Amino acid sequence: xxxxxxxxxxxxxxxxxxxxxxxxxxxxxxxxxxxxxxxxxxxxxxxxxxxxxxxxxxxxxxxxxxxxxxxxxxxxxxxxxxxxxxxxxxxxxxxxxxxxxxxxxxxxxx
Amino acid sequence: xxxxxxxxxxxxxxxxxxxxxxxxxxxxxxxxxxxxxxxxxxxxxxxxxxxxxxxxxxxxxxxxxxxxxxxxxxxxxxxxxxxxxxxxxxxxxxxxxxxxxxxxxxxxxx
DNA sequence: TGACTGTATAACTGCACAGGAATACAGTAG
DNA sequence: CTACTGTATTCCTGTGCAGTTATACAGTCA
Lengths: 110, 110
Fold this sequence. Notes:
alpha+beta, 3 strands, 13% strand, globular, homodimer, DNA-binding, Arc Repressor Mutant, subunit A
């Protein structure tokens, strides 16, 4: 369980925390989850997620700023697509961690 | 970039988001970073991080509730230790993602 | 040109939460 | 018992941000 400690500078901690924060919203995870199937327009995402248009735009802006998705304009439409596949691994890891945690909690109860 | 879409239930999204949120604070990442070197008492962590005692206790409580660390009481002292090594992978992944992002931003500027 | 569609951007409100101060609690020592 | 130490918890305050509404902007079509 012990690792070589590589102390991180405050600025680095802020950066990492900031990016985790982008993933720390159900709405944004929902958008990413839909985008995992491929490129979508804002309108598609509004319809699929049930979120209103302004909200979707803002969430996508945050995801894009963090580099998780990228934007492509085509006429009136804006197409968004996953730009960093590490989000898949991040979410998978987190889901596995949750499964382990729930398993422990279950053992503690029964 | 396209994957098989496995739609997640709202409750699942909340869970995943909630755990990302625990990692979305510089102070907690700092604590985890120190704990990567091994088990520490609250006092150790207060001294190492410069955070005040109440803050450290509260952050550790959140980390423990999420299952990232676990607590062991010994006399007056409370020893905390990393309980889920996936935090290492999560942070490594995030750091790599940041490096890629910064590399892209750099290319876009120069 | 003007009307319309898709998207982005204010401006506002409410809430969750980090940080700090004070206090409560548990364990030890005398 | 009392005094003290290490840790947890409560209360308070300020701030960041999600959600909503309204509006602005950009591109298309007549």
